[in-house]
């Protein structure tokens, strides 16, 4: 490639836009993410010719923050997550109070809040985390910040 055809640095991506999860019941998932996790529904789009609906949720606008895209395929309601999927992570101010509230609302806490069991020589503080499951069984990590 000659110097005249070399792409400039501004040709690289600049920001993460969203993460997408496929959900079996869009209304159930919207209720979970808005009512229990405090996200706002930013927009919802139906695609009749493609037989799917997209819903974008987050804690801020899509113009400045990364959001969550929920995809509901109208004809298929079973998904295999596979073992490559890990989790999404959300920050909270008081991990213990957040987990107590969510548990009282019936949210499944898969790993109770507490310090990480593994340590890293690169960290000077112990991170406190918990895990919960969404209605489709996706793991969500809560991190105290």
Can you tell me about this structure?
The chain contains two helices and eight strands, in the order βαββββαβββ. It is of the alpha/beta class and 145 residues long. The strands form two sheets. The chain has a four-stranded mixed beta sheet, covered by helices on one side. Strands 5-8-7-6 form a four-stranded mixed beta sheet, covered by helices on one side. The longest helix has 11 residues, at 26-36. It is globular. The N and C termini lie far apart (46 Å). The relative contact order is 0.19.
Produce the secondary structure layout.
Blueprint: E1 18-22, H1 26-36, E2 40-47, E3 52-58, E4 67-73, E5 88-92, H2 95-104, E6 109-115, E7 128-133, E8 139-144
Parallel strand pairs: 1-4, 5-8
Antiparallel strand pairs: 2-3, 3-4, 6-7, 7-8
Give a quick rundown of the structure.
The longest helix is centred in the N-terminal third of the chain and has 11 residues, at 26-36. The chain has helices spanning 26-36, 95-104, and strands at 18-22, 40-47, 52-58, 67-73, 88-92, 109-115, 128-133, 139-144.
Summary tags:
145 residues, alpha/beta, four-stranded mixed sheet, 8 strands, 14% helix
């Amino acid at each position: 490639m000659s110097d005249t055809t070399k792409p400039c640095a501004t040709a690289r991506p600049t920001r993460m836009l969203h993460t997408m999860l496929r959900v079996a019941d869009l209304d159930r998932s919207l209720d979970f993410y808005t009512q229990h996790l405090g996200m706002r529904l930013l927009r919802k789009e139906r695609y009749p010719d493609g037989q799917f609906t997209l819903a974008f949720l987050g804690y801020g606008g899509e113009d400045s923050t990364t959001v969550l895209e929920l995809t509901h395929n109208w004809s298929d309601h079973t998904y295999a997550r596979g073992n490559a999927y890990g989790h999404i992570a959300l920050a909270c101010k008081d991990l213990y109070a957040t987990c107590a509230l969510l548990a009282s609302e019936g949210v499944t806490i898969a790993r109770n809040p507490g310090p990480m069991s593994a340590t890293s020589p690169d960290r000077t503080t112990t991170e406190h985390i918990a895990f919960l499951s969404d209605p489709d069984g996706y793991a969500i990590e809560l991190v105290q910040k």
